[in-house]
Amino acid sequence: MKKNRGLKRKFKSTLYDYNEKLNVYSGYVELYVPQINYVNENISGYEYQVIDFLIENTKDSIPESAAFMYIIDEINALNSHLIISDDNNDLNLNLIQEQSEKIPNYIKQLESKYNLKFTRKVSVTEMNFTDYVNLDEEDKFDILYYIKKDKEKVIFVTNVLWTWISR
Fold it and tell me: Alpha-carbon distance 37 to 10, whole Å?
């Protein structure tokens, strides 16, 4: 594996951002994992490290009155983040729960370490067939798989997420 330069600095800078945003919390905040360098959108081997850093450094700093949700992106771990809000409606992202027998190892490790139970959810997009046909090839690249595809409408999955919500 190629050496990531500046990794320690990026983690330290992210920790500073967490502390700053949580100290001035005013009802809503999103905190992302450290944005490390990657090649071809692949941070293989660092998924657990960046997500563990997020949970470890935020779990005890979340305001008691706030609801929060950890969101782990299965496709791109750098999109993983924490949403903290005073309004429970902010945590309703209209995701669909999906069963999966295959749980990534880093999810199992996080569940065990922090005594959490993550749920697999998918982000779904629905559109009429004509709009789908007119999509750019670049936009079609983001489609992971189809739930329904016929001459009237298309329903497809664009993201697979693992979530844990406090309630």
Answer: 10
pLDDT in tens, 38-75: 655 555 677 888 899 999 999 999 998 899 999 999 88
Closest of 21, 118, 108, 111 to residue 61, by C-alpha: 21
Q: What is the CA radius of gyration of the chain?
A: 18
Q: How far apart are CA 135 and CA 55, in angstroms?
A: 37
CA angle 79, 38, 145 (to 5 degrees): 50
Q: Model's pTM, two decimal places?
A: 0.84
* First-to-last C-alpha distance (Å) of the chain: 40
| pLDDT score for 25 | 92
User: What DSSP line would sit under 24-84, residue for residue?
Assistant: T--SEEEEEPP----BTTB-TT-HHHHHHHHHHTTTTTS-TT-EEEEEEESS-GGG-EEEE
pLDDT for the residue 1: 46
CB 136 within 8 A of CB 151: no
What is the token pair recorded at 58? 């935020």
Closest CA to 144 of 123, 163, 126: 123
